[in-house]
Design brief:
Blueprint lengths: L2 E4 L20 H10 L4 H17 L13 H10 L6 E7 L5 E7 L8 E10 L2 E5 L3 E2 L17 E2 L2 H15 L22 E4 L9 H12 L11 E5 L6 H8 L2 E5 L5 H7 L8 H9 L10 E7 L7 H10 L5 E7 L13 H13 L12 H5 L9 H15 L6
Parallel strand pairs: 5-8, 8-9, 9-10, 10-11, 11-12
Antiparallel strand pairs: 1-2, 2-3, 3-4, 4-5, 6-7
Helix pairs in contact: 1-2, 4-5, 9-10
Length: 403
């Protein structure tokens, strides 16, 4: 059953706020902004550290709440900057606790406001947030609904971090105002404990913004999520994989989906540019790869397409020598698509073969079905997001790449 928690009050059409936001900026970026408004040079480091802590460890949205910042400085900041969150157009909570937010981001340049969905999936002892990197996608994977949509635009670092902040706000996952100023804020025991870049878009085609955002997410004085609990999923943008490892250092998930180039060319057309061998070589060389930091290979189960026992055996052969786990994702059909999800028995047979070869390949029951079914109640502009978001859920339900 769908239980809408809240719907944001009708807001004026979003436009870029006149005041720049400090959210999503690196420390250097905040420093430069402070300098621009005339903050004394010798104060910049200290002010940046204070702001960083209030914004990310404490989650405040109002400069007036920054109690260890002088009153004058608070009003200077207030007149120059904003810490505004994205507008929440709708919020839904599933009977199993899965939550979904439809968020609207302002127009940038000549564009229009855009909407994306972010999903939170609670589990025992942890909770995973599925975050988007782009609106639409330039790639055209034949089984993916997002792939039928043109890229509208990249999300900014502010908008990517904003998805995490909204989730923490709404879940009550920031310390409350009674926490004394300067008190240590524990990074453990949070409701949002894991992030997967498995929402809309190809994160490695929006590298700089995704990097900036994930470095804030993993910053020990920022959102404090361990890099082992952040997973970046890519369809296989080979040249960017080493940079992702070196500069972001998160866990890596690869949307493999096929074990032969002829088939992968059809399912993930980017394969024509970066075929399986090149992709797997990049994986073998992924910085920091070890048995403790394995790569997740996502494999969508398409009936009579890629789901035979021979495919499973070939998968095992291909991955030999790569510390890996395998996510078997039941295919999520969408209107007009020609693929079907493999039968449950077929998925189990496939999983057994992979398991016997020593790879974890859990298949979990999908969650949040009820609110996904109710997606039609959201704004029609979000049409393209629905299938995208369903599939992301399924990807996670099949076991995402964290411990
Ligand atoms: N663009 C990136 C990340 C977003 S997609 C990527 O392709 O990896 C997240 C995962 O969902 C990918 O593995 C993607 O292939 C998979 N997926 C896409 N459409 C799906 C569908 N209809 N059913 C199941 N999984 C799907
Ligand atoms: Fe883009 Fe990923 Fe969908 Fe392919 S699977 S079209 S890369 S979002």
């Amino acid at each position: 059953m769908t239980a809408p928690l809240a719907t944001a009050p009708a807001a004026a059409r979003s436009t870029v706020s006149e005041k720049p936001s400090l959210i999503g900026l690196s420390r250097e970026g905040i420093g430069a902004e402070l300098e621009r408004i005339g903050v004394e040079r010798k104060q910049i480091r200290m002010r940046t550290a204070q702001l960083w802590n209030w914004m990310y460890a404490r989650g405040v949205t109002d400069f007036a709440d920054m109690l260890n910042v002088s009153k004058d400085m608070r009003s200077t900041l207030e007149s120059a900057f904003t810490l505004k969150r994205p507008e929440i157009v709708a919020e839904q909570v599933s009977e199993d606790g899965t939550r979904k937010w439809l968020m609207r981001f302002p127009a940038r340049g000549a564009g229009r406001p855009v909407e994306i969905e972010t999903v939170y999936i609670p589990e025992i002892g942890r909770g995973t947030l599925c975050v988007s990197s782009q609106v639409g996608c330039t790639l055209t994977c034949s089984f993916c609904h997002t792939g039928t949509q043109k890229l509208v635009r990249n999300l900014t670092a502010e908008e990517i971090v904003g998805q995490i902040l909204v989730a923490r706000d709404r879940l009550g996952d920031f310390p409350d105002a009674t926490t004394p100023v300067g008190a240590a804020v524990p990074s453990e025991g949070r409701l949002v404990s894991n992030i997967v870049m498995m929402g809309m878009g190809e994160p490695l085609y929006n590298f700089d913004n995704v990097k900036e955002a994930l470095l804030i997410a993993s910053d020990g004085e920022g959102l404090s999520l361990s890099k082992r609990r952040i997973t970046l999923s890519t369809s296989g943008v080979v040249p960017m994989i080493p940079r992702a490892g070196e500069e972001i250092g998160s866990m890596l998930a690869i949307s493999l989906h096929a074990v032969r180039d002829d088939l992968r060319d059809l399912l993930v057309p980017l394969n024509k540019k970066y075929p399986i061998k090149e992709l797997l070589d990049a994986c073998r060389n992924y910085p920091g790869l070890s048995n403790a930091r394995r790569i997740t290979f996502e494999y969508v189960m398409l009936k009579d397409v890629n789901d035979s026992p021979a495919d499973a055996r070939e998968l095992v052969r291909l991955l030999k020598g790569i510390p890996a786990k395998i996510n078997l994702i039941p295919f999520n059909p969408w209107p007009g698509v020609n693929y079907q999800c493999s039968d449950w028995e077929t998925i189990e047979t496939f999983s057994d073969i992979v398991n016997r070869a020593g790879y974890a390949s859990p298949i979990r029951t999908p969650r949040g079905r009820d609110i996904l079914a109710a997606c039609g109640q959201l704004k029609s502009e979000s049409e393209r997001m629905r299938a995208r978001e369903r599939l992301a859920l399924e990807a996670m339900m099949a076991g995402d790449a964290d411990e």
